[in-house]
Amino acid sequence: MSKKQSFLTKYIFSQDHKVVGVQYMILGLLMALVGGYLAYVFRYQLAYPNQSIPGYGVLEADKYNSAVTMHGTIMVFWVAMPILLSGFGNYLLPLMVGAKDMAFPKLNMLSFWVFFVSALTLISSFFVPEGAVGGGWTTYPPLMANPGFTGVGWGAPLWILAVALEFASMLMSGINFLTTTITMRAKGMTFFRMPLFVWMANVASLIFMFSVGPLIAGALMLLADQLFAVGFFLPEKGGDPLLFQHLFWFFGHPEVYVLLLPALGIVAEIITVFSRKSIFGYKMIIYSVLVAGVLSFLVWAHHQFVSGIDPRIAAPFGLTTILISVPFAITMFAYIASLWGGQVRFSTAMLFAISMIVEFLLGGVTGILNGATASDIYMHDTYFVVAHFHYTLFPIVFLTSFAGIYFWFPKIFGRFMNETWGKIHFWITAISANFVFLPLFFVGIAGNHRRIYDPSLFEHLKDFQYLHVISTIGLFVLIGAQVPFILNFFISMFKGKKATENPWEANTLEWQAPSPPGHGNFITDPVVHRWPYDYSLENTEKDWCPQTEAI
Amino acid sequence: MMNWLPENVSTYGTDMDAVMHSIWNIVFVWFLLAEAVLFYFLIRYRKKKGQRAKYKTGNSLKEMSWVLIPAAIVLMFDLGIDFYQNPVWKKVKIDIPQDPDLVVKIEGQQFVWNMTYPGLDNKFGTIDDFKTTSQLYVPINKKVVFELSSKDVIHSFWVPNLRLKQDAVPGRVIKGWFEAVKNGTYSIGCAELCGSGHGMMRGQLHVLSDKEYQDWVYKKTPKKAKKALEAAADSQQENSHE
Ligand SMILES: [Cu+2]
Ligand SMILES: [Cu+2]
């Protein structure tokens, strides 16, 4: 790469994994603005039914359905996936294993641009006749299979096309992650010397690859039903609507862990650095996650307990679902135990990482009420479920991404983000999120089912309207709190305090490279002598010990 | 938290509420314990001048047991919850009464519920069958079995006060049951996104006394059917006189 690079090849059509990673992150953050705007629109409707929404207008019932559908779709596939897995994964993985780049840089560039096209495709569906699809992010047929039912013309096939492109892009990323990890590790970087984030990103990629096949098959059949009325899922043509649900959730549940695992990886790196402690039970965590990965393929029907499947099949799925809490209990306990005996420094990154654990715990435990078959009869498709998965996904997607951004920003851009503004961002975000999502548990228990555009139409929900108002006001604050973040991000990029190569005194290899690392990452090829969590070793002067340091 | 549940008016609702209360109490205690330990560590082990963190990897089995023992207890609670709640699932979804007092056909359709009653003779397919739209009338303290189907897309029959939810799937007839124990009128909703009118797909459950219910059925029975039935009954009476 001695050729001088133009702006175009350096920052736009770049094959450098770091640039690709940052591109993914920034596009993911932009899509988060769209997903957030949609949340603002439908939450406004829920709190103040049928009033004109500032910045939108009156939200009709079918547009309400489009808004919730696209919010879910965007936040999962165009925010969580690209930021957590592709963004952080692309940026960090080669650096952390001591590689110069990904195994297939061109494929990596292609992966981002396919993702870019997928985002454009999805966004374009807002502007086609009859607008974006409104059948829910789960896109159940026959509603989504027969245009006569949805009232959606081009939105539905465009949705499928966009998701297909997005999956193609993620598969390309996954191939790169696995190949790079297996073949391009630095000398001395054994598998059990890899940082947890590398483990998590690889296991997540594997889970994604194993689970996505059935969904692609389901999506193609759905497309055939939509365009040619073939009838895979249409009973009047001998098809079965429930088949789609099985294919969807065979992917859909593992997908949760595709998002959770990279987040757990990011949190692990941050809490160890800022408590100056080893992670507690490194291998135990890895094995737990592997067990959970396998189990995640055996729980899918918990989304379908009341869907009309044979009720006798619910019990085994209820059991596997409840059991999957054990490996994650181990992981969470191990993270908490990692803080024991530490010297905790509350930087912005650390605050976000801790808040991820604090809030995720509530999302985790409330899942049991959905996993237990009997209580799920009531809770299924109520706001209780909505609150439950937002208490998992908000910490996974947003709190963790913020933690990661504040933490690796000095590596990525060679400058710090402003800590004071970071802490203001943190406190408002972490607290207001609870005002958004806590009330939803209560309305859910009170019997508020999902995806209805005006709960006050129901007699049994009239008294709980104030909870929707609290949630919506919480969302206004939450969205407002992102303004200082966005300003901090862009101003710090150019004006932030300069960072040295290892400002947080961390052990993993990326901190041995210059900040920011040039093309090819390391000045001299790193040689690894130890695992990444030797913080506060006894009988040493400094309280960290980079992986490159010989014994 | 589970005090926010709406009033329960079904027999099995009592069992389901007990399940929800117990699970919530268990998981909430675990949640509080984990948070308490976490916050204790954060405060106790915050950075202090001149102090150094301990080197503790948690890689030996002895250290791992700090985490594995609580996790084993979690596992025991998990299994306990599962075995405790399974019979309730069975009662609601599997053990559908063989000798119901009333059978109603319920069909979801964008965006109403069509109810078909067997009428005075308690048999479907006879002239005294009648229909209502989104209004379900049942007698109190009677086992009601419903046959749920859908005309178009997937809907979900949802009566919060009965603790009842069951998807209605086109191409299938799914059986379910309930027994209401309190007179009154209760909300019916559709809990599965079914199109633009999903949020307006409302209905009502009316739980009547036996007498009120019989009167209502009589009132709803088509005139023609009533005449035919009365004629049949008369001729039967005459027959029995002979
Ligand atoms: Cu699941
Ligand atoms: Cu519906």
Give an overview in words.
The complex is a heterodimer of chains A (551) and B (242). Chain A has a single domain, classed as Cytochrome C Oxidase, Chain A, CATH 1.20.210.10. In chain A, 64% of the residues lie in helices and 0% in strands. Chain A is built from 17 helices and no strands. Chain A has helices at residues 7-12, 17-47, 61-97, 105-124, 147-150, 155-183, 196-228, 241-275, 282-295, 314-323, 325-338, 348-371, 373-379, 383-413, 419-445, 465-480, 482-495. In chain A, α8 runs antiparallel to α12. Chain A is globular. The mean pLDDT of chain A is 95. In chain B, α1 runs antiparallel to α2 (61-94). Chain B contains 4 helices and 10 strands. Chain B is α+β, with helices and mostly antiparallel strands. The N and C termini of chain B lie far apart (67 Å). In chain B, a hairpin with a 2-residue loop joins β1 and β2 (112-117). The longest helix of chain B is centred in the first third of the chain and has 34 residues, at 11-44. At the A-B interface, α3, α8, α9, α10 and α11 of A face α1, α2, β7 and β9 of B.
CATH class term of chain A: Mainly Alpha
Q: Sum up the overall morphology of chain A in one term.
A: globular
How far apart, in Å, are the first and last alpha carbons of chain A? 35 Å
Mean pLDDT of chain A: 95
**How far from one another are the termini of chain B?**
67 Å
CATH superfamily of the largest domain in chain B: Cupredoxins -  blue copper proteins
- Following the backbone from N to C, one meets helices and strands of chain A in this order, namely HHHHHHHHHHHHHHHHH
- CATH fold annotation of the largest domain in chain B: Immunoglobulin-like
Low-confidence segments of chain B, given as residue ranges, are: none
Number of helical regions of chain B: 4
Instruction: Report the count of strand segments of chain A.
Output: 0
